[in-house]
Amino acid sequence: MTNNMVTVASCQVTLVVGDVEANRQSLRSSIIRAADAGVQVVVLPELANTGYMFTDIDELRAAAEPVDGPTVGEWAALAAERDLIIVGGFAEAGRDGKIYNSAVLVDASGVRACYRKAHLWNTEKADLFTPGSGVPPVVDTAVGRIGVMVCYDLEFPEWVRTVALEGADLLCCPVNWPLYPAPEGERPIEVVKVQAAAATNRMFVAATDRAGRERGQDWLGGSVIVDADGFPLTTLGLGVAGLHIAHVDLSDARNKTISELNDVHADRRPELYFKAERRAHGTA
User: Fold this and answer.
1) Is 117 among the catalytic positions?
2) Which InterPro entries match (predicted)?
3) CATH code (residue 43)
4) Of these residues, 114, 151, 172, 173, which one is catalytic?
5) Residue 164 belongs to what H/E stretch?
6) Mean pLDDT across 98-123
7) What is the pTM of this model?
8) Domain residues for 152?
9) Beta pairing partners, 231
10) For a Cys-Cys bond, which of 26, 48, 53, 237 suits 215, CB 3.0-4.6 Å?
């Protein structure tokens, strides 16, 4: 199997709701630090241009940008200048007048994909964002096949599976994870779910969270990069801004076997899953 070593970074930064210029500067600094460290794939948080805790739709709309706006444009320029692949979340002002919780993948050639979050979380659904209706993209890049989705999307195994079945070597996920109480000594459940998504699909996953507090909301700061066996390759820096860097062999994600006789894709029996779903909905 061909060796395909790639260096990936999760840029865990502190953001300020509505202060797009300050957020852009923090992201720029973090991207440059990652590039200086030899990183090839950079993953930024969810809604990285705007912050998260919006008072109302008017505040959100004032901060949102089109995909060809200054934030994504700067990421594309940095990607071209430093030969990077950057995946980042942003509040997208759609041409249809709606606002989307989106993520882009850019490389030296420009914007390769823009994905709109399909599964909205809590107040995102309260007259703020419109859910996306497209499937998560899987992009052929210079380092391998990279999938993109956003935060709560990760909690739907069917959605993650779509990316894996399209041959993604690495799934990049901008996230904003609120800090919730957990039993002492337990790994945050959000991180556990990322590990499960990686292991059940034998696919690398990089989730980039944010740090700090915003309008009374503390953020977990649980950025993590996980290997195809589901084990973390980075140390959790809960709540603290910083770079989380891992060296990964993406070719490992192309081997779906987990024993001499088992393969996580070939062993699937979708005809049974569809039958069970139809029965659950009373249509079988």
Assistant:
1) yes
2) Aliph_Amidase/BUP, C-N_Hydrolase, C-N_Hydrolase_sf, UPF0012_CS
3) 3.60.110.10
4) 151
5) helix 157-165
6) 98
7) 0.96
8) 5-256
9) none
10) 53
What whole-number distance in Å separates Cα of residue 281 and Cα of residue 177?
A: 32
β-strands 262-263, 204-208: how paired?
A: unpaired
- Per the listing, tokens 């990183």 go with 39
Digit-coded pLDDT (tens) for 32-68: 999 999 999 999 999 999 999 999 999 999 999 999 9
Flag whether pLDDT at 1 surpasses 60.
no
Asked whether residue 271 is domain-assigned, the answer is no
Say if CB 75 and CB 88 are below 8 A apart. yes
Cα 143 to Cα 26, 228, 252: the distances in Å are 26, 16, 13
d(C-alpha 63, C-alpha 25), whole Å: 15
| Mean pLDDT computed over 130-136 | 97
Give me the count of residues in the chain: 284
Which residue is catalytic, options 46, 65, 124, 190? 46
Strand-pair category, 99-107 with 213-214: unpaired
Phi and psi angles of residue 130, each rounded to the nearest 5 degrees, phi first? -100, 130
Residue range 244-275, pLDDT digits in tens: 999 999 999 999 999 999 999 999 999 998 88
Q: Is residue 264 part of a domain?
A: no
Q: Is residue 185 part of a domain?
A: yes
What is the distance between the alpha carbons of residues 41 and 23, in angstroms, rounded to a whole number? 20
Residue 263, domain member (yes or no): no
Query: Catalytic: which of 11, 65, 74, 117?
Result: 117
The number of distinct structural domains making up the chain is 1
- Is 81 part of the annotated catalytic residue set? no
